[in-house]
């Protein structure tokens, strides 16, 4: 007989806390120059803070674009964020960076991280002798790069390595008549950035704020809009890609937004610049016409894969008469994916459901189909307030 006492048992494992995810792991591909014994071109480096620039010998005088975008990334995301950096020669075009060739910079970047990168920013500081071909008010290189980058990203999705990209709206003439419209495309894995954080180095053109926008996306939850006002202003000073301030282009904000560009805007009573939203280069009828929706589904894809991968080539009992999976086993498989998604995406989705039809004949097909549905969180894109005077005695 034991001595009478009160025994307290501390429980564990009920909080649903998960380890850090890959949601905000980012990559940057930038044009620049090699630094002897410190920075090689076409080699991927993993950074964790802005101080890593010094270790690589990256200075604003010799590598202005690389210095600017990496510094801007960490000013927004904060030190500690994982950033994979690949520097290529200044002669490399956006289309070459995003090419489908096996050894293209984009593929090299993603492969180097074993598919863990979820967000990629690409930017270019063209050499003085570069003479762009203007197509629909943009450098034609941007237009071809959008399609190429999307195709590469779609290819990696098949390997369960989903990612989304930010490309710069280089060469914008400042005109909107007959302007290229990303919304008329079908490249929902690409965003086109019209925001600029100024001129850098010897370039005569304004540089897209790729590092800055990438840093905002890497910092926030997958379901949040990068233009979310509550997240605060993203810049105190800025331009659009033709070198004019957002205020000077106020009259065409609606046109640029409808066209599908990401650019700086202001709000009355708020200091600084905010992003107008998170449009992707596809029609608004596409489920993933906004970056946040795409990031939500990408995260769910990875979770679903990780949930079921251990069951591949496993043996399961089936009904002796129909060859179908038993209903209890179906419910077990459903519960596993629901538990994984709702735990790891708490606060990022409204609800998640899964259903497995028990009548599937596994013996003949060897395949189990799982139907999953996500109800995303809503985004308040517009708020209408009906306000009027009222005479209570009238």
Describe this structure as you would to a colleague.
The protein is α/β, with parallel strands linked by helices. It has helices at 52-55, 64-77, 94-97, 105-112, 140-157, 210-219, 253-259, 291-308, 327-344, 362-365; strands at residues 26-32, 44-47, 83-89, 119-123, 134-135, 138-139, 164-168, 186-187, 190-193, 195-198, 207-208, 239-240, 261-262, 264-265, 274-275, 281-282, 349-355, 371-376. It folds into two domains: 26-296, Rossmann fold, CATH 3.40.50; 315-394, no CATH class. It has ten helices and 18 strands. The strands form six sheets. A seven-stranded mixed β-sheet has the order 2-3-1-4-7-9-13, sandwiched between helices. Helix 2 (64-77) runs parallel beside helix 6 and helix 8 (291-308) packs across helix 9 (327-344). The radius of gyration is 25 Å and the shape is globular. The model is unreliable at 12-20 (pLDDT under 50).
Topology of this protein?
Layout lengths: L25 E7 L11 E4 L4 H4 L8 H14 L5 E7 L4 H4 L7 H8 L6 E5 L10 E2 L2 E2 H18 L6 E5 L17 E2 L2 E4 L1 E4 L8 E2 L1 H10 L19 E2 L12 H7 L1 E2 L1 E2 L8 E2 L5 E2 L8 H18 L18 H18 L4 E7 L6 H4 L5 E6 L18
Parallel strand pairs: 1-3, 1-4, 4-7, 7-9, 9-13
Antiparallel strand pairs: 2-3, 5-6, 8-16, 10-11, 10-12, 14-15, 17-18
Helix pairs in contact: 2-6, 8-9
């Amino acid at each position: 007989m034991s001595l009478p006492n009160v025994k307290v048992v501390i429980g564990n494992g009920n909080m649903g806390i998960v380890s850090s995810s890959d949601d905000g792991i980012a990559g940057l591909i930038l044009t620049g120059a090699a630094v002897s014994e410190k920075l090689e071109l076409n080699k991927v480096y993993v950074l964790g803070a802005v101080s890593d620039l010094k270790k690589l010998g990256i200075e604003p005088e010799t590598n202005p674009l690389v210095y600017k975008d990496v510094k801007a990334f960490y000013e927004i995301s904060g030190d500690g964020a994982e950033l994979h950096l690949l520097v290529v020669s200044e002669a490399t075009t956006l289309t070459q960076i995003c090419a489908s060739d096996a050894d293209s910079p984009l593929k090299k970047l993603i492969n180097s991280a074993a598919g863990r990168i979820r967000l990629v920013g690409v930017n270019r500081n063209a050499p003085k002798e570069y003479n762009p071909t203007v197509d629909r008010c943009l450098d034609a290189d941007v237009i071809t790069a959008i399609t190429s980058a999307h195709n590469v990203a779609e290819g990696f999705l098949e390997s369960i390595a989903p990612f989304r990209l930010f490309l710069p709206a280089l060469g914008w003439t400042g005109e909107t008549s007959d302007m290229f419209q990303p919304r008329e495309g079908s490249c929902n894995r690409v965003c086109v950035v019209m925001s600029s954080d100024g001129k850098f180095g010897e370039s005569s053109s304004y540089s897209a704020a790729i590092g800055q926008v990438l840093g905002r996306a890497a910092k926030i939850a997958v379901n949040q809009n990068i233009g979310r006002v509550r997240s605060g202003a993203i810049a105190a000073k800025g331009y659009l890609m033709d070198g004019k301030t957002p205020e000077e282009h106020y009259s065409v904000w609606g046109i640029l937004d409808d066209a599908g560009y990401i650019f700086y805007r202001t709000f009355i009573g708020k200091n600084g610049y905010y992003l107008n939203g998170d449009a992707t280069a596809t029609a608004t009828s596409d489920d993933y016409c906004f970056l946040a929706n795409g990031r939500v589904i990408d995260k769910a894809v990875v979770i679903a894969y990780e949930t079921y991968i251990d069951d591949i080539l496993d043996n399961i009992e089936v009904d002796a008469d129909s060859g179908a999976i038993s209903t209890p086993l179906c419910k077990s498989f459903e519960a596993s994916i629901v538990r994984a998604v709702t735990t790891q995406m708490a606060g990022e989705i409204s609800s998640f459901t899964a259903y497995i039809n028990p009548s599937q004949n596994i013996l003949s097909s060897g395949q189990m189909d799982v139907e999953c549905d996500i109800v995303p969180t809503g985004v308040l894109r517009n708020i209408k307030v009906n306000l009027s005077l009222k005479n209570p005695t009238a």
